Amino acid sequence: MTPDKLQSQLNLEIIQPHHSNESVATGYTSDLLSDVMANAVEGAVLITIQSHANTVAVASIAGIRAIIICNSRPVAEDTIEAAAREKIAIYRSTENQFTVSYKAYKLLHTES
User: Fold this and answer.
1) Which domains does the chain have, with CATH numbers?
2) Residue 89 and residue 54: Cα distance in Å, rounded?
3) pTM of this structure
4) Based on C-alpha coordinates, what's the Rg of the chain?
5) Which pLDDT does position 65 carry in this prediction?
6) Is 63 exposed, middle or buried (0-12, 13-18, 19+ CB in 10 A)?
């Protein structure tokens, strides 16, 4: 599923739309960036409340295609700029990580 389709289906606010057009195959939910680096798989969407530039750096290392920031957290301009450079989309949800993870799981596993 493309990041754009995931955004549309989950009704997410677009914060940083530019991405690599590579498909999202799975998701990973964590707020601990070392956990994301150790366990997230390439092609995932990251679901988190961490909205700082380090999140983008970790996402880039892990091959994350898009980041969903939950709980309406603000996203700093330097984070948005870093994501644009790395071609990682950033979306925002008013919902919490549990709810977004459930919805993303259903979408990604129905798509297969």
Assistant:
1) 3-111 (3.40.1390.20)
2) 15
3) 0.95
4) 12
5) 95
6) middle
Q: Do the beta carbons of residue 65 and residue 23 sit within 8 Å?
A: yes
Instruction: Look up tokens 């990973």; give the residue.
Output: 28
Q: How crowded is residue 104: how many other Cβ atoms within 10 Å of its Cβ?
A: 25
Q: State how far the Cα of 69 lies from the Cα of 75, in Å rounded to an integer.
A: 8
Please tell me the distance from the alpha carbon of residue 13 to that of residue 8, in angstroms, as a whole number. 9
CB burial of 18-55 (b: ≥16 within 10 Å; e: otherwise) equals ebeeeebeebbbbeebeebeeebeeebbbbbebbebeb
User: 21: helix, coil or strand?
Assistant: coil
pLDDT digits (tens, 9 = 90+) for 12-61: 999 999 988 899 999 999 999 999 999 999 999 999 999 999 999 999 99
